Amino acid sequence: MTDPRLARVYDNGFKKRLVADELQIGLWLNSASPLVAELVSYTGFAWVVIDAEHAPNDLAETIAQLHAFAGSPTSVMVRPPWNDMVLIKRLLDAGVQNFLVPFVQTAEEAKAAVAAVRYPPKGVRGVSVGSRSSAFGFVTDYWTRIDDHIGVTVQIEHMTGFGNLAEICAVDGVDGIFVGPNDLAASTGHIVDIPHPEVQALIAALPAVCRRFGKAAGILASNPEEGQRYVDMGYSFVGVGSDLGLLKGAALKAARAITGRSASR
């Protein structure tokens, strides 16, 4: 009898929906908690990002969270600490199918991200024949088929990246473009001021450029209301907060409901 888990290696619903430019709402995972990840897997988000850049998600914790989403309709994307072929290789071997590559500023950097997830001759991914990605070698055609099933989204987080947006969008193998609003605001001189008109003008301009090249546009919002505004701008995959942000908001609300003020103030 064939193990049904083996077919999941090639099942990348997020990439399929991304290429089709379907609306997908997601959540950031910063808590490094497999238990929280498992809870989120039941809530109906189309995707999550396990953040290894700004959150304490190491490789073992990432694998544990991948297990938490096994069998869930929610797709998992991982943001590595940097656009680095070795870091990306380790995540690939761990079974990561979708990548959010941070701080991409040029077409050359975007090409490097794509090359990192593909085997030679199309790329530079190192070959491991017994890792989790190929079900420890039980998927015997993994190495000849998997390239087309790995998703690559690059993150535009700086004015330089915006200046090179068309060239980045033109890179074959880039499936989506994702705005990093906080770093973008900082690069314009308006640190942590995402609502600033200059920052919002850049954010509003990006989806049209992406669509010219057939690429989906994504962004992280701080709450669902802001997320809806971004959807109305033309963004098709939108994060609406984080696990820690939701916990913080709920904790503050509970504390104030009982005491009339924050318990810490």
Distance between the termini: 61 Å
Widest sheet: strand ordering = 1-2-3-4-5-6-7-8
Radius of gyration: 19 Å
Which CATH architecture? Alpha-Beta Barrel
> What is the domain total for the residues?
1
Helix content: 40-55%
> How much is the average pLDDT?
96
Instruction: Tell me the CATH superfamily.
Output: Phosphoenolpyruvate-binding domains
- Shape, per Cα inertia axes: globular
Q: In the CATH hierarchy, what is the class?
A: Alpha Beta
Q: Which sequence of SSEs, written as H and E, runs from N to C?
A: HEHEHEHEHHEHHEHHEHEH
Give a short synopsis of this structure.
40% of the residues lie in helices and 15% in strands.
What does it look like?
The chain has 265 residues and is α/β, with parallel strands linked by helices. Strands 1-2-3-4-5-6-7-8 form an eight-stranded parallel beta barrel, surrounded by six helices. Strand 7, helix 11 and strand 8 form a beta-alpha-beta unit. Helix 2 runs parallel beside helix 3.
List the helices and strands and how they pair.
Layout: H1 13-19, E1 24-29, H2 34-40, E2 47-51, H3 59-68, E3 75-79, H4 85-93, E4 98-101, H5 107-116, H6 142-145, E5 151-156, H7 159-163, H8 165-169, E6 176-179, H9 181-187, H10 197-212, E7 216-220, H11 224-233, E8 237-242, H12 243-259
